[in-house]
Amino acid sequence: MAKAERVDGRLMKVGKSARGALYGAISLGVVAGLLIIVQAWLLARIVNAVAFHGQPLATQWGLLAVLLGLFVLRAGLSWASEIVAFRASASIKTDLRRELLQHLFARGPVPLAGEHSGDLATTLIDGVEALEPYFSRYLPQMALVSLIPLAILVVVFPVDWISGLILLICGPLIPFFMVLVGYAAEAINQRQWRQLLLMSSHFLDVLQGLTTLKIFGRAKDEIAIVAHLSDEYRKTTMAGLRVAFLTSAVLEFFASLGIALVAVSLGVRLLQVHATIDFYAAFFVLLLAPEYFSPLRGLATHYHARMSAIAAAKRIFEILDAPLPPGPLAPLQVLPAVREGVSLRLEDLHYRYDPEGPEALAGFSAAFPAGSYTALVGSSGAGKSTVANAILGFVQPEKGKIWVDGMDLHSIDPRFWYEQIAWIPQNPRLFAGSIADNLRLARPQASLEELREAAQAANALAFIEALPHAWDTQLGDLGSGISGGQVQRLALARAFLRDPRLLILDEATANLDMESEALFLDSLERLRQGRTVIVIAHRLATANRAEQVIVLDAGRVIEQGMPAQLLSQGGAYARLVHTYRGQYHA
Q1: What DSSP character marks residue 430?
Q2: In terms of domains, do 149 and 114 share one?
Q3: Side-chain half-sphere of 305: how many Cα atoms within 13 Å?
Q4: Which H or E run includes 305?
Q5: Which is deepest, 136, 370, 450, 463, by most CB within 10 Å?
């Protein structure tokens, strides 16, 4: 329970932005609860006057009107309390989702590569949503439990100390039992949340790899795995419900027992020959007894919402506690406003992904003049993508410097730096939506004519306008509905629309056929004019067009020069060329 208490403390800090609204909801709930005492007093007085003092009901119309008004007022206060609490929790959820997204963006794609996107999506959506009952219901109910029973005891003790003593003894049994059950409930909720994340991650992986599963005939096996995961989640959910229902039953028993003891005590004393309590006092206390246990019952109802929120919050805080890249030591700067490509110089870069593993970059140094076209080549794992990630700012080298037009990259405002870059990876990301919407990610205000010009430059206009709905054609996630070559050309059109100073292509032609590759490289020739281009090349057609080739091995530069020059030297680049030609002809 100590860990749950620490999570409770952090959740309270998360909710401080809406603390005023939460206090308002609690205040409304407390006033509504205190009106119960006034209602019970009025009702006991009316019944006592009519039944035992022989007063006509007509003489009580004033008190009955006040009683009716109190019923309406109490209902209105309860409604307002729920509305205010819900809006406060909605504000907290919005702020928390924004903080989570900002933290994930700040971490960058490389640290997040080890995370399951299904896990993150479930946490962002369902995990944050699970906090809503905690803020809107559990916290206000905790305040009511602290104040309303105490106020009722203050009223009951002067009227009948025996009933007050019974309530005082029976009341704490409910929260005490809840604490005992909390240990089992917390473990079940933690297990249920972990299984939900596992199921979400696996299901998303299966959907994304459905084509591969079909090709290798493994779809039925995956159906069995998904069914098993779903059944495990069902069992855990039912175990949690079993504990919740058992808890509610036991708590209802204690509450009913307390009310029954008060009723029996009052009845016995009323029926005595020399009654020690009159009807008015007994009826007043009996009306208040169920209301004394009502906030405790409500707390029991919302206690499992707290357990679910804590299970989700632990994962949320794990994401927020993940370390961020170090920030700049000096005020951020921007580059001079020039249009030619940027000049890059990388000096003695060292970086490793795993602290215990080998270095991905082990003293990498190279220069990329403004407006140059450079190809990075080397075997898999040589460090090519790590160089691109360092330039993009996705990883922070442990040692060394990256100079951009003579300025330290670490001192440049990242938002400004990203405005100067277009990056086309091996598998460009297209989202569910129209073709026009996907292109406008590069420039949201772009007109249709500007879209057509970018598509024409990328050799994509013909196939776009040949589609039945042209620019309004709806694509599925990851660009489903069009070919891989068309996806790459849309990514290139997006780069044209962005008009960058630096273009980085990470194996952008690796999955293309020869015809698509030729169209892509033809468009690239137009795009590279006046820009600095860095290409991670697996295919020699890409490297042969470069002005300089840098060959990497184990994170170091082992050769550098023009393609024809390196080929004539018979070194590492020549061996890569011969290996590639041998595989191609085979």
Answers
A1: -
A2: yes
A3: 20
A4: helix 279-321
A5: 136
> pLDDT tens digits for 337-367?
555 678 888 888 888 887 777 888 888 888 8
Going from the C-alpha of 539 to that of each of 177, 508, 519, 556, the distances in angstroms are 69, 10, 14, 21
Q: What's the CATH number where 421 sits?
A: 3.40.50.300
**Residue 327: pLDDT band by 50, 70, 90 thresholds?**
low
pLDDT digits (tens, 9 = 90+) for 62-101: 888 888 888 888 888 888 888 888 888 888 888 888 888 8
Domain that residue 128 falls in = 18-321
Same domain (yes/no): 407, 292: no
Quote the number of domains for the chain: 2
Residue 332 domain-assigned (yes or no): no
CB count within 10 Å of CB 391 equals 23
Secondary element (H or E) of residue 360:
none
pLDDT for residue 461 is more than 70: yes
Q: Are residues 275 and 160 in the same domain?
A: yes
- Same domain? For 229 and 314 the reply is yes
Which whole number is the average pLDDT over 211-226?
76
State the DSSP string of 31-67.
Answer: HHHHHHHHHHHHHHHHHHHHHHS---GGGGHHHHHHH
- Across the range 418-445, mean pLDDT stands at 82
Which position has the token pair 């994962």?
315
Boundary (domain end) residue, out of 286, 321, 356: 321
% pLDDT > 70, the chain: 88
Identify whether residues 421 and 489 lie together within a single domain.
yes
End residue of a domain, out of 272, 289, 321: 321
Give the span between the Cα atoms of 586 and 584, in whole angstroms. 5
With 80 as the cut, is the pLDDT of residue 494 above it?
A: yes
Residue 584 pLDDT level (bands cut at 50, 70, 90): very low
Tokens standing for 527? 């795009």
- Indicate if 301 and 181 belong to the same structural domain: yes
Q: pLDDT at residue 2 above 50?
A: no
Is residue 315 domain-shared with residue 371, that is, in the same domain? no
Report the run of H or E that residue 161 belongs to, with start and end: helix 161-170
CATH number at residue 188: 1.20.1560.10
pLDDT for the residue 478: 66
Nearest-5° Cα angle at 569, 565 to 571 = 115
349 and 244, same domain (yes or no): no
Q: Is 552 helix (H, G, I), strand (E, B) or coil?
A: strand
